[in-house]
Design a protein that fits this description.
heterodimer, A: 659 residues, alpha/beta, four-stranded parallel β-sheet, three-stranded antiparallel β-sheet, 25 helices, 54% helix, B: mainly alpha, ribosome biogenesis (chain A), rRNA processing (chain A)
């Protein structure tokens, strides 16, 4: 006889532990237990059978793995929590006795670790435990960044202390600086919730959401204690991630932070990045917006060093240029498929619309431009994105804070002006405007500086997402903007994609169909002229066709012939009814080829369908049904896409006719 | 004539020990006789003032052996020794302990600190604790302490080459091989398991779902209209459900009212018709009606009555059985239909599965949005909060970024996402503490009277 097993000694009853049991085992208070679980990454679990686990009559709701909790017993943080608990007890006892001053003293001493010798704790060791490799940390950065950017934009309350907010903001700005320097921002999307950003760091795609400024309502049904615990953990994490990222590109962490500038709203401009070994490099990379660096070790030495570096750089760029020129010369010699580039003649001149695909580095998309942000535009995201894509000089209205390249709207070096206000319907003489602008400091509501491109903010986002400069006319102030599409949605093959040109997405059959239609229309317009010639042609063609078809596919040929015959007859009948002369179907050689192509495609499709039928026969009934359903939905979808494409074709045609 | 006193010991006559009873805590504290201690302390103080504790002094300081006479003293002294006044004597006394210096000094706490020059307001009591501080202390005592995590700038690379560290450790282990090895606790495998996702599919959800085109501030028409239609459909469905619920409730209430009315009517009728012919149970009831106040023993049933009950019960049983058989037969007739339904359901499931597989293959994880279908079993005691409707209505749709009115609440969104991914369990916010229920009663003081 086997040994009789007692109930509750093995299996689920041993593997799981209820929350109350866990709290008792660790001798913690419930809030502290929650904190510890969040930091150590211990999540609630679910046993298959709850009744088998808990012995109590009342249903326990939360369970943990016993082993996890057992492991928590080794956690050094536990001691800190217990110390805190002891302190709480001391204080509450003193308060209960009425010794308020004693209570205050206890608290004071605990808050001053230098007096008590008990340091406050950090979460440094937890970071390494939770994320054994740096890539693990990067993978969890989505949540971290979204959380910190959100908290950086919250108003301070008792639940969210101002210190925490400031810290979050700082960490976020530091991270943005890394993205700017390393050009690792890839995409961005303006949604109704906030602004999405996607960056690629060491091969990991990181996506996070940043709220719009001044929009955060604090609602009651969010547990700030839990959120705060997460934020504390994530602040530590992002600190380490920043350190690693900065050191990976040879920068010193933390970067220099100018309190005064920050108070004046400089944001990104409040930081100045430094290389790790200042002595050898003697160079401070700062987001200076083209200004001179104010502080430095010694102005004289600095100037000399700068000179040398400048020379070196110039040499480099020269060599690059020469290399490019050589390359260009090569290009000229042998014709290639690459598209010509239109370079502005003078630096800072008009940006010419670039051809569709450019081989330029997308990270230097805005490198040659000087932007000016009008005061109604969101400065923070624009500044960040423009800088991340290579822009060096950004000016803005002084309302938007410090750190601008220029606050002067009339600065002649500005090439792009981002504006988001409606066009005022005031009659102004266009010719007069240009002259006025030259002299007047302030411009009127609708007046523009000449030689500068005015665009709405969406232009920046669309350029970034498509990795090319979009034509600015579409985004001119007052123009109806093209839809802002999500860069994260990849259109499935065959699906209608409004961003692509029609040629790139239509199926072969559709294209041919469209061409044929065009041809027919053309025929209807000027059919009679060529009628006679075509008669002969068609006869010949028919003969040829028959000869070719005879060997390979007799059936098809017969069918086709029948079809054409019936078609012909119908045409004749129609013509008779209308009292016209019989018009032979006019087929020039091009159309002919198209027709043949169509036939081939149709035939191919038919064959494929047959194959499918045959394959379907092999499937089990269940699978066949499944397959049929899938096919049905796919067909429905593709029919919809086709319809959409046809609509667009029609629109385009109309447009072409108008033009 | 001066009384000679012994140098030590109590000069007084021995007397009864006058310590009163120390029974009870208060008496213990109050009635301790401390005069002896106080006297001793006073004496000590006096000695210190006069130039130090006598017991601690060396005997050379206290005593001198005078060997030869001092002749000059007689010359110094006036002829007639004048005794000074007692009052002068007292006033001329000087303590050996130096006086406390009255020079003003900065307080020790503020020493070395640069202040803003504004003097702090003086408090009468240095240990005074303000009400604000007190309430904060109370909160701390309740466990609501402010953050204790020290936030410092990262000063080292947390992911620095682990091999290097390992090598160092190994070296240390080799050099100190005589020491017993310290076994580190091993993390259990369960620690690395993913949290329980609340999605119906059980798949892990992304922290930040990739936004689709319809979330754009300036969406393409097709995207927007699709989303709009879907939301519309959902809202309609919800409204329909709500109305159905209402209707159900109404019907229920109506039925209840009706049955109540019927019962009342029956009661009335029963009251009227006492004479009615009655079956076994009704008889008992109606009998009881007549003698409402009197508790009556149930009467013994006759055999005829028993038989009648038996027959009735058997009839009831038979009817029940027949109904059950009828139902089963009906179901058997419907078996084909049920099988069909089941098959359909299965097919749908398989289809979903296949589609999700396809989605995985295509790496189009865009489908995973925040409003995924939730699993049926919730994780904690409380339900997951509803997701906000993030949709700009058609008349509010703007094509300018400046005019955009953001939708949704990111804070709530983040919190919900956390719950959705099973990182924490849902909690309910309790805005107010539960108060003890008070019951108002009237004192019947009018009953407290005395017969004089």
């Amino acid at each position: 006889m086997p040994k009789i097993k007692k109930k509750g000694q093995a299996g689920a009853a041993k593997n799981y532990i209820t929350r109350t049991q866990a709290v008792k085992k660790l001798q913690l208070s419930l809030p502290d237990f929650r904190k510890l679980c969040i930091w150590k990454g211990i999540y609630p679990r679910e046993p298959r059978n709850k009744k088998k686990v808990s012995k109590s009559a009342t249903a326990s709701t939360t369970f943990y793995y016993t082993k996890d909790i057992q492991y928590l017993l080794h956690e050094p943080l536990l001691q800190k929590f217990r110390d805190q608990k002891v302190l709480e007890k001391k204080i509450s006892r003193a308060l209960g006795r009425g010794d308020v001053s004693d209570a205050a003293r206890f608290e004071r001493h605990a808050a001053r670790p230098e007096a008590t010798g008990k340091p406050r704790y950090t979460l440094n060791h937890v970071i390494r435990e939770r994320y054994p490799t740096f890539n693990d940390a990067l993978r969890d950065l989505d949540d971290c960044l979204s959380m910190l950017f959100l908290f950086a934009n919250l108003p301070s309350t008792s639940a969210v202390p101002a210190k925490m907010i400031a810290r979050c903001e700082r960490l976020c700005l530091e991270f943005q600086h890394y993205l700017i320097v390393s050009h690792s921002l890839r995409k961005s999307f303006l949604s109704i919730k906030g602004i999405y950003y996607q960056a690629n760091i060491q091969g990991e795609d990181i996506l996070w959401l940043v709220p719009y400024k001044f929009n955060q309502r604090i609602v009651g049904d969010v547990d700030f204690r839990i959120m705060g615990t997460f934020v504390e953990f994530y602040m530590t994490l992002l600190g380490f991630v920043n350190y690693r990222l900065y050191s990976s590109i040879g920068l010193k962490y933390p970067p220099k932070f100018d309190q005064l500038k920050d108070e004046n709203g400089a944001e990104l401009g409040a930081f100045s990045l430094e290389g790790v070994n200042m002595a050898t490099q003697g160079e401070t990379k700062a987001v200076t917006n083209g200004e001179e660096q104010e502080q430095g070790p010694d102005p004289k030495v600095q100037a000399e060093v700068d000179k040398i570096i400048k020379q070196l750089k110039e040499d480099e760029s020269k060599s690059d240029e020469t290399a490019e020129e050589d390359a260009e010369a090569d290009d000229e010699e042998k014709p290639t498929d690459s598209i010509d580039k239109f370079e502005p003649v003078a630096p800072g001149g008009d940006v010419l619309p670039q051809p569709a695909y450019s081989s330029r580095d997308p990270s230097q998309l805005f490198a040659n431009f000087t932007f000016y942000l009008s005061r109604e535009t969101p400065r923070q995201p624009l500044e960040f994105i423009l800088r991340a894509f290579g822009c060096k000089r950004i000016g803005w209205d002084s309302v938007l804070g410090e750190g601008a390249f220029t606050n002067d709207e009339s600065d002649p070096s500005i090439t792009h002006h981002i504006i988001d206000r409606p066009v005022v319907q005031a009659a102004t003489n266009e010719d007069g405007d240009g002259e006025d602008n030259q002299t007047a400091q302030k411009v009127g509501p609708n007046q523009r500086y000449p030689g500068r491109i005015y665009v709405q903010p969406q232009w920046v986002w669309d350029c970034v997402n498509d990795e090319e400069l979009k034509s600015p006319e579409l985004y001119a102030p007052g123009a109806a903007l093209p839809p802002h599409l999500s860069p994260f949605v990849k259109a499935a093959p065959g699906q209608y994609d409004p961003a692509l040109p029609l040629e790139a997405q239509q199926t072969e059959a559709e294209a041919i169909e469209a061409d044929l239609e065009d041809a027919e229309k053309g025929n209807a317009e000027d059919g009679s002229d060529v009628e006679n010639d075509m008669d002969v042609d068609e006869a010949e063609d028919d003969e040829e066709e028959e000869e070719g078809d005879e060997e390979a596919e007799e059936e098809d040929a017969e069918e086709d012939e029948e079809e054409s015959k019936t078609l012909q007859r119908q045409l004749e009948l129609e013509a008779e009814l209308q009292g016209k002369k019989v018009q032979n179907k006019k087929v020039d050689s091009k159309t002919k080829a198209k027709l043949e192509q169509r036939k081939a495609i149709e035939k191919k499709a038919r064959e494929e369908a047959e194959d499918l039928e045959r394959a379907k026969g092999m499937l089990s009934k269940k699978k066949r049904k499944l397959f049929e359903q899938m096919q049905y939905t796919n067909n429905k979808k593709s029919a919809q896409d086709e319809k959409l494409r046809a609509k667009r074709r029609k629109l385009e045609k109309e447009k072409a006719q108008k033009a | 004539m001066p009384v000679l006193k012994p140098l030590s010991g109590n000069p007084e006559a021995p007397k009864q020990y006058n310590q009163p009873s120390r029974k009870g805590k208060k008496a213990w504290r109050k009635n301790v006789d401390v005069t002896e201690v106080e006297q001793g302390l006073d004496e000590l103080n006096a000695q210190i003032i006069k130039g130090g504790v006598i017991a601690e002094k060396a005997s050379e300081e206290l005593f001198a052996i005078d060997v030869k006479p001092d002749t000059e003293i007689a010359k110094k002294l006036p002829k007639q020794l004048k005794k000074p006044l007692k009052a002068d004597e007292i006033l001329a006394q000087r303590s050996a302990v130096p006086a406390v210096s009255l020079k003003k000094r900065p307080a020790s706490e503020t020493s070395g600190k640069v202040t803003d020059g504004v003097l702090p307001s003086k408090r009468l009591r240095a240990t005074y604790v303000t009400q604000k501080e007190l309430s904060r202390l109370k909160r701390v005592a309740d466990g609501h302490h402010t953050t204790t995590v020290e936030v410092v700038d990262a000063t080292f690379d947390a992911w620095a080459d682990p091999e290097e560290e390992q090598r160092k450790k190994q070296q240390a282990a080799e050099t100190f091989n005589f020491l017993p090895k310290v076994e580190k606790p091993k993390a259990p495998k369960t620690l690395t398991q993913q949290p329980i996702s609340l999605a119906a599919t059980g798949k892990q959800l992304p922290a930040v779902p990739k936004p689709k085109g319809d979330k754009s501030y300036n969406p393409a028409f097709t995207d927007y209209s699709e989303r709009y239609q879907e939301e519309l459909r959902k809202a309609e469905e919800a409204e329909r459900k709500r109305l159905e619920e209402l209707e159900k409730e109404r019907l229920k209430a109506e039925a209840a009212a009706k049955s109540r009315a019927e019962a009342e009517a029956a009661e009335k009728r029963a009251e009227l018709s006492e004479w009615e012919d009655d079956s076994a149970w009704e008889g008992a009831e109606s009998d009881a009606e007549g003698l409402a106040n009197k508790k009556k023993r149930p009467e013994r049933k006759t055999q005829a009555q028993r038989n009648k009950i038996k027959r009735r019960k058997a009839e009831e049983q038979r009817l029940k059985h027949e109904a059950a058989i009828k139902k089963r037969e009906a179901e058997a007739a419907r078996v084909k239909q049920i099988a069909k339904e089941l098959a359909e359901k299965e097919r749908q499931l398989a289809l979903q599965k296949a589609e999700s597989n396809n989605a995985e293959d295509d790496d189009a994880s865009v489908e995973e949005d925040d409003d995924v279908e939730l699993r049926r079993r919730q994780l904690g005691k409380f339900k997951l909060p509803e997701k906000d409707l993030e949709l700009v209505l058609p008349d509010e749709l703007q094509d300018s970024l400046r005019l955009l009115k953001p939708e949704g609440n990111l804070l709530k969104d983040r919190y919900r996402n956390m719950l959705l991914r099973g990182k924490v369990e849902a909690r309910r916010h309790i805005p107010f503490k539960k108060q003890a229920k008070t019951k108002v009663t009237e004192k019947w003081t009018f009953k407290d009277f005395n017969l004089a």
